[in-house]
């Protein structure tokens, strides 16, 4: 679809059921996840000891303005609540990683991955955050490319998923079975704010394509006005040269 496409927000009551593949759930526990290195980064499982570093990240207004809440954490307890989903026993419900520099693998400078298995469009959603002093160095692109390698390597299973019909088009449809259910390539969704051009450029560099811009009420504290949300998608299995994911 063209980058100028604008549309209504996703409506789960109008979703359609498709046959696709997704990573098997539960996801691997933190205890068995192997750290992944890129040129400058180490992606590793989150730890309880990351709380202080996550607190630094989540008290930077420049970072938090792009989050759904739009403000810094008010206290350590709020940050602890944000870290908890990425620690046992809830670690198996997502696939989020601590992002560290190679020279200091114990200090979290960012966090990212699949934090939401069912996005507004029904597909898994990717997201990430970096400390402001790490911006403008290509680290977000480096992280996302590395994370997509990890995501692509997860074992898959065939499943039925309710998704927004706008994600099912000629580019994604593989076949239609005897009962009329479409078999489609799995997708990975990223939702951005219209003003966050930096993140949109990162997504494009990593193979994401813009497919719709929709309006939603700004969920940030004290806001509430309608904002535009350019939304991107990625076809994970295409990077492995598999047009059809079934039987893989």
From TrEMBL:
Pfam families: Acetyltransf_3. Transmembrane segments: none annotated. Residues 40-209 form the N-acetyltransferase domain. InterPro entries: Acyl_CoA_acyltransferase, GNAT_dom, N-acetyltransferase. GO terms for molecular function: acyltransferase activity, transferring groups other than amino-acyl groups. Gene3D superfamilies: 3.40.630.30. This is GNAT domain-containing protein.
């Amino acid at each position: 679809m063209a980058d100028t496409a604008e549309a209504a927000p996703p409506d789960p009551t109008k979703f359609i059921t498709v046959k696709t593949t997704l990573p098997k759930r539960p996801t691997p526990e933190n205890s068995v996840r192997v750290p992944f290195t890129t040129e400058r980064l180490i992606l590793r499982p989150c730890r309880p000891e990351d709380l202080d570093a996550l607190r630094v990240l989540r008290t930077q207004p420049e970072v938090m303005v792009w989050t759904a809440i739009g403000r810094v954490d008010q206290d350590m307890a709020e940050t602890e609540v944000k870290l908890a989903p990425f620690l046992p026993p809830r670690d198996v419900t997502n696939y989020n990683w601590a992002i560290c520099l190679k020279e200091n693998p114990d200090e979290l400078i960012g966090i990212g991955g699949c934090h939401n298995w069912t996005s507004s469009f029904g597909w898994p959603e990717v997201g990430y955050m970096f400390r402001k002093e790490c911006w403008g160095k290509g680290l977000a692109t480096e992280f996302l490319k590395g994370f997509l390698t990890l995501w692509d390597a997860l074992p898959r299973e065939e499943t039925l998923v309710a998704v927004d019909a706008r994600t099912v088009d000629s580019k994604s449809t593989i076949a239609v079975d005897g009962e009329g259910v479409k078999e489609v390539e799995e997708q990975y969704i990223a939702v951005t704010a219209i003003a966050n051009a930096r993140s949109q450029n990162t997504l494009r560099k990593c193979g994401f394509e813009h497919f719709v811009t929709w309006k939603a009420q700004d969920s940030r504290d004290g806001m509430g006005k309608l904002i535009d949300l350019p939304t991107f998608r990625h076809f994970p299995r295409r990077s492995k040269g598999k047009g059809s994911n079934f039987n893989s």
